[in-house]
User: Fold this.
Amino acid sequence: MLTPRSRTALMAIHWSAGDACIAERLSTLRRPQGFFPSASFSNSFCIAISAYIFFSRRFSSAMAFISDINEASMPPYFERQLMGWTALPLHSGLEALNMEEKIMRLHYLGIDLAKNVFQLHGEDAEGNVVYRKRLGRVRLLDEVGQLPPCQIGIEACTGAFYWQREFEALGHSVRIIAPQYVKPFARHQKNDQNDAAAICTALRQPNMRFVPPKSLGQQDIQALHRGRQRLVNHRTALVSQMRGLLLDRGLAFGLSITRARCEIPRLLTMERDRLGDLFASLLEQLFEMLCELDRRVAWFDREINRVFRSNEACQRIAKIRGVGPKTATAIVAAIGDGADFKNGRHLAAWLGLVPKQHSSGNRQMLLGISKRGDRHLRTLLVHGARAVLRTAPKHHDVVSQWAIGLQERRGAAKAIVAIANKNARIIFAMPRQNTEFRTA
Assistant:
């Protein structure tokens, strides 16, 4: 059997002999009368045609030789001519079958969420990688819907609860993990593929703690609280700016917003000459902005109160001393019925109302509170505990007497945090035990 190189050499010899015969025949052709101006031109014309045929066949033989060499250097499954039949492509049916078998073993799936591009990383029950894919936002739900039911892990971020509801509707079990619990499992440098692998590894840990899920109703209540808090922050910053501007003019008043609402109109009326026309006009504009923010905050307060009156769980929680409509609605929006927490202490630790620990060996060191979790929710509980401690001397129940004794022993700040911690544990126990709050 001739090799491609031998076959090409024989073809070149044959073509050389053919070229000589063609040139000889052209030179012996009888020249028609009057067709060529001279014999020399006829000979030149014959030589040119012979040269054209010779080099065109040389070029064709070279291209055929290169094609044969490329075919000979390819792997067997890429050869276009192998015993007269067409070989299988790279992704053969056997490999596709193996891929389907791997996907059927899918047990854990980590998804790195983003705005437009999503990285998927799947592993079986033994931790072997069986699935990897990078998808756009449009194809994500269709691809996840074709996978067998598995446990999906995603990081807590914007849109995480939406994707949790969508994936659960497709038959999967979804867990949301806080980013600080995923970071220890990240390997190598940061990219989407490594992040998805870290999420999948964190999901497989037996003692991993997950973020409580939220419904659309809970997210609506949270949106009310976040919008109100944004306006309150703007209002506080505006009042501080007006107070600073007036201090440059030698005018000072108290720190409370209520004092600002009373003093600024009085200054605009009685001290206008001292302020000047330009500064007085500027102060009027800022004060109108303050009044507009008050109206918008009042609208959020009405909506929160309406949600509070329509929710039985919020009304039950609000019977606790130091818990009002805002705290009750925020608690229900954050934890629901509290089923994701083992006990009340875990809820208090999740809210950051427990001491930060830095212990080693037999040396126990407790620092200030950890301040973990939802800052807004912790602030509401602390403010409510401050009100409980302030009004404790007027009451004679067990909680009030305990709060007064704790304040005398450890100080007001620690007593306030302790009361907030106790309220968090009571809030956890009430829906779990189906009981009402009662004072001893």
